[in-house]
Amino acid sequence: MRSAILLATLAMVFSVTAASQTARWTFMVYLAADNDLEPYAIADFNEMEMVGSTSDLNILVQFDRSPKYDASNGNWSDTRRFRVVQDGDPNTITSPVLENLGEVNMGSPQALVEFLSWGVQNYPADHYCLVLWDHGGGWRLLEKSSGGLRTTRLNQPEAPASKDQRIVAAGPPGGRMPGFVNPFGSGWGPLKDVCVDETNSDRLLSDEIQSALAASGTVLDILGYDACFMGMIENAYEIRGMAHYLVASEETEPGDGWAYDLLLSALQAAPSMTPAELSTTIVRTYGTYYQGGSGNDQTLSAVDLTKIPSVVSALDGLATSIVAAGDWNLVKQALERTDSYNQGQNVDLFHFADRLGGLSGAGTIQAATQALKDALGASVIEYYTESGHAGAHGVAVYCPPSSAYDPRYADGTLRIDLSRDTQWDEFLRAYHAGGGTTTATDPYEPNDTYTTAYGPITSGTVYSGTISGRADVDLFKIAAGSVFDVRIDLTVPADYDLLLIQKTGEQVTVIDSSMNANLDPELIARGGLSPGEYFVAVVYLWQDDNTSPDPYQLQVTMSGGGGEVTVSLQYDDGSPEGGVFSDRFDMHEGLACYFTPPVVPARLRGIAYYISALDAIPEYGWSSGSFYVFGSDYYGPLLTDTLLYVTPPATGWNLVNLDAEDIVLSGDFFAGMYWDAWNTPMIGWDTTATNGMNLVFTDQAGVQDWYLWSGTFFIRAIVTYVNEVTGIAEEAILEPNRKI
After folding, report:
1. Do domains 19-155+191-306 and 462-563 have the same CATH topology?
2. DSSP strand E in 599-675: where?
3. Residue 569 in 3-state DSSP?
4. Class level of CATH domain 462-563
5. How far is the C-alpha of 206 from the C-alpha of 483, rounded, in Å?
6. How far apart are alpha carbons 486 and 475 in whole angstroms?
C-alpha cells in the first residue's frame, strides 16, 4: 500500500513539475500510425529520440500503432503518450510511456482535442507546434505508401488490409455466395483527409481539424502536415485564425517524411527561434535531407497564415476576372503549362497565375494575376522544390483537367470554406461547362497525316472538330486485331465528306467514301473487314477556304475486332502456361489483379478474363464454368449489391461489359473473379513473373483474407478516361500493375 502511495505521489510530483516549468517550445506530434506507415512512424520516433526533450523544448508524441505492419519495439498496438527523451539507439524506442490510453481512434477530432489540451496544460511553453503525421490527401484523394524506405507514398496498398467491409450477393440457383472481403479494407476515406486509423475505419477530415483546433482553445504558432498533398490553399484557409504558420507539401512526401533529427537539433540549439524561423528551419532541413535523392519531385513550404486572407481575396478577384473574360482556351493553355500534383488534380497557384498572366493580353486578367502573385509572395516565407517541380512556389489549389471536375467541391457536401467564400468554384464550373474540354477550333490537331492521326479511337465515342479549308484533313486511326464490322456516322454541313482508308505498310487504299453524296448525316457501313490499321478521314470538298468552319460530329461504332482483348503482358511471353481454379487446396475463393488507371477519374467499362479451360471439374461431368465478376477500390466494392454472374461462352479472352454498372474510378483498384463454388472455369495463369500484384482470397479454417500470389493471372481491365492534354475521351486496356 505504501509503495502504491509513493508511486502516485511521484507521478503527481512529475506532473506538477512538468506543468510548472514554461519551456520555449512544446513540439507535439500526432503520430497516427495505425496503418501501413507504422514502420516509418517508428523510424521518425527514433529520429526524435536522437535529440530528446530539454527544459526549453518539450517533444510530445501521441503514438497509435497497428497490429499488422511492424512487430518491433514490443509490437504494442494501442495508443500511448510520450515526452521524448534522448538516447543514442536509432532502432529502439526507450522514452518512458506517460499514459497508455488503450485503443484510440486517431481519426476522431475529439482525440486531437484531448491531445492538444493535454500537451498545453501539462507542458506550457511560449510557443506551440502541432504536427499531424500520416497519409494525406489535400482536400481530395487519400494516398498510400509502397514498401521500402525513401519511397513515395503512392496509391498502392502495402498488403491486403482489414476485413471489415463486405458485400453479400445471391449465388446461382441452389447455391450461396459467402460474405466477401474488400482487399483494400474499409479505412480509406475519399475526401479531404489525413490521419487514417485502420482499426477504427476513420480519418480526420479538414473541417474536423478546423473544429478540433477551435475546440482546443489554443492558437498554434505552427501547424505542420507531415503528410502528402496538404500544402493547398483550401487547407490553409480552413485553419485561418487558428495557427500563425502552416508547413506542408504540395506533392507526395516520401515515407521517411520530415527530418526530425535535423530540425529538432536546430531547435534545441536555438530554442529562442521565432515561429517564422522554426517554420523556415523545417523546410530547409527537409531540403537538406532529400536534396540529391532519387525522384527529384519533393516540395515543402512554410506559409504565413495571417496573410492568407489577402491571398484568398486576390484568388477571388482572379476567378471573377476569368469568368468575365470567358477565354477558356487561354485558361486551358495556361493550365497545360502549370506545375501540377496528385495526378493533375491540383496546380501550383503562383505558377498558374504567372502562366495565365503571361498569355493573356487582357488588362483585367494581368492585373488580377499580378495581385495574386504579390499576395502569395508575401504569404509564402520559405519553400523547397526540386527539378521535377520547377514551377512549385509553395501553395496548390484544386483545378483538375477537363471533365475530371468533382461537383461536390462546390455543392456544400464537403464543407470547403474556400469554395463557399470565393468565386473559385464558380470559375471551375464555368471552365468545365464552357471550355476546357475542347479548344476553340479543333482539339485533334495536328492530325493531318497518318503519323499524327488521332487514335486509336474508341468505339461509340463522339468526336467533335472542324475543317478549316481544302488543305485541312482530320484523320482518325482504327486498330483491329480480328475481323470486324464498322459503322461511321458523320454529322456535318453538306460540304464535308467522309473516307474510310486502309493502310498496309506504305500502301494506302480508299475502301469506301461518302463523297458527293451531300448527306447530313453521312454514313459508311462495312462488314467483315480484315484485321489491320484503318483511318477515317474528314475532308472539305470545295476549292475555297472555309472561312467560317462549322463543327462536325464523328462517331465510329465497331463490333468484332474491337471486342477482343489481344494485348500481352510486358514481362512474359503473353501466353498462359496453364490455369487455376478453386478446386486447388490453396486457391479456394477468388483471384484479383491490381490496376492503375492512366488518369483519374476514369470509367471501368469492362473486365477481360483469359479462360484456359471451361471443364474445371471434369470428374463431375461439367463442361462449362461460371464465376462472379469482382471489383474493389479504396472506398469499397465497385459493383452493385448483386454481383454479375458470368458463364463464359468459350475459352480464350472473354470480355465482361460493365457499362451498365456506371463505375467511376478515383484511383487504383482491384479487378478479378470470385468463384461460385460450383462449376468453376480455369483462369489463365503464368509463373514466369513474380510481381506481387495479384491476390488470392482464401477461407481456410474459417479465416478469410487476401494474400499476395506470385504468378501472373490473365485479367485485364478496360477503362475510358479524358486525355489531360486534349480533353478527349480515350480507351485503354490495362495490364496488371507492378507493385515493385
Report:
1. no
2. 602-613, 627-633, 636-637, 645-646, 652-657, 663-665, 669-675
3. coil
4. mainly beta
5. 54
6. 16
pTM across the whole model = 0.59
Only one residue has cell 462472379, namely: 628
CATH number of 19-155+191-306: 3.40.50.11970
Count the Cβ atoms, other than its own, within 10 Å of residue 644. Answer: 18
What are the pLDDT digits (tens) for 301-353? 999 999 999 999 999 999 999 988 888 878 888 888 899 888 778 999 999 99
DSSP 311-348: HHHHHHHHHHHHHHH--HHHHHHHHHTS-EETTTTEEE
For residue 713, give the H/E element and its range: strand 712-713
Q: Distances in Å between the alpha carbon of 71 and those of 39, 65, 76, 77, 134?
A: 9, 10, 8, 9, 19
The one-letter code for the residue type at 18 is A
For the chain, the first-to-last Cα distance in angstroms comes to 58
- 186 vs 125: CA distance, rounded Å: 39
Q: Are 539 and 479 in contact (CB under 8 A)?
A: no
Indicate the residue type of 222.
I
Q: Where are the alpha helices (DSSP H) in 564-709?
A: none
Q: Is the peptide bond before 275 cis (omega within 30 degrees of 0)?
A: no
Give average pLDDT by consecutive 10-residue segment, the chain, 740 residues: 35 40 96 91 96 97 93 95 96 96 95 97 97 76 27 24 22 30 39 76 85 94 94 94 96 91 98 98 96 84 98 96 86 87 87 92 91 98 94 94 64 79 89 51 72 79 73 82 80 74 84 61 79 86 55 78 50 69 53 84 88 65 73 76 73 83 84 74 75 68 67 85 70 70
User: The C-alpha cell of 8 is what?
Assistant: 502516485
Rg, the chain, Cα only: 29
Q: Where are the domains of the chain?
A: 19-155+191-306, 308-379+389-434, 462-563, 578-734
The label of the residue with cell 509572395 reads 377
User: Could you tell me if 27 and 266 are in contact, meaning their C-beta atoms sit under 8 angstroms apart?
Assistant: no
Q: Which helix (H) or strand (E) holds 384?
A: strand 380-385
Chain-centre distance for alpha carbon 24: 39
- The length of the chain in residues reads 740
How much is the pLDDT for 492? 63
Q: Tell me the helix, strand and coil percentages in the chain, rounded to 5.
A: 25, 30, 45
**Which triple of cell numbers denotes residue 88?**
543514442
Conformation bin of residue 337: beta by default, left when phi > 0, alpha when psi is -120 to 50: alpha
Q: How many beta carbons lie within 10 A of that of residue 525, not counting itself?
A: 12
State the Cα–Cα distance between residues 380 and 232, nearest whole angstrom.
Answer: 12
